[in-house]
Specification:
Order of helices and strands: HHEEHEHEHEHHEHEEHEHEH
Helix content: 40-55%
Radius of gyration: 18 Å
Number of strands: 10
Strand content: 15-25%
Shape: globular
Length: about 270
């Protein structure tokens, strides 16, 4: 293959996207647990099926390449599902700070311009509702799905997910072309100027970081990571992604609670 002088030829590893991680883990670890979240226990094929269903349901609503899927809730295995769906469709998953005020969340909605908002009622519902009202047109144009609502609720995340087909988007002739340089994850930070900005992380950036963290923390397929820190912060998400990349098990709890943590550590 010819290439420009000074620009190395891309290998298959460099063309690998975050979406391929889910596919490879499905093929290579069909019986292993991918996630544990309360009573929810999913193997890699089960998690990937749910991600594919979410992709299908999003496509039916016209959500795809370049669109933002905004998570406004606490820790959950569904964050990985939204991230996986973003990875497979070319969308961007943004995890918001659930501790933010209604004003702060309204700014984020207006700035990110999400096509989909997955929100939580427990503990943060009042702030989310205030933000939704303040954001005006930016919130009205988005599809809102409540992740902690029962599946019987037509506006719930689960009802929306099961409406899709468990077929990988790459099997479709009309599938979006997703490259390693596309953004897949957005996290807000005010570290640069004091004003919040959405920092975009690409597939290659996320995977490179994950592999480095896996090496530093000795993470392998037997690793079980307790996601108790906030996943809107990259310091927590780095180990989540490293565990994902190495086909370990990500265990979720909504937030830090001493009694819950002791119970999870004992049983898991």
């Amino acid at each position: 293959m010819r290439h420009h002088v000074g620009v190395p030829e891309l290998t298959n590893l460099h063309r690998f996207t975050l979406a391929d991680t889910f596919r490879e883990n499905r093929r290579n670890r069909p019986l292993d647990e991918a996630v544990v979240d309360g009573d929810v226990r999913l193997t890699w094929p089960e998690l990937d099926d749910r991600i594919n269903r979410l992709c299908s349901a999003l496509a039916d609503r016209g959500v795809g390449h370049g669109d933002v899927i905004l998570w406004m809730g606490q820790n959950s295995h569904r964050i990985l599902e939204c991230l996986g769906a973003a990875a497979k469709t070319g969308a961007v998953c943004c995890v918001a700070n659930w501790r933010s005020s209604a004003d702060e969340l309204a700014f984020l909605i207006g700035d990110a311009g999400p096509s989909v908002v997955v929100w939580q009622d427990e503990e943060v519902g009042e702030a989310v509702a205030g933000a939704r009202e303040q954001a005006g047109d930016a919130s009205h144009s988005a599809l809102w799905l409540r992740h902690d609502a029962p599946a019987s609720d037509p506006d719930s995340y689960e009802a929306f997910l099961v409406s899709g087909e468990p077929r990988d988007p790459e099997e479709s002739a009309s599938a979006a072309v997703v490259t390693e340089s596309d953004p897949v994850l957005m996290l807000y930070t005010a570290a640069f100027s004091g004003r919040p900005k959405g920092a975009l992380l690409t597939h290659s950036g996320v995977l490179t970081q994950a592999l480095l963290m896996a090496n530093l923390q000795r993470i392998d397929s037997d690793y079980r990571y307790l996601n108790c820190g906030p996943l809107f912060h990259v310091a927590t998400f780095m180990t989540t992604l490293a565990t994902l990349a190495m086909a370990g098990t990500n265990i979720f709890t909504p937030r830090v609670d001493a009694e819950a943590l002791c119970r999870i550590i004992s049983t898991e």
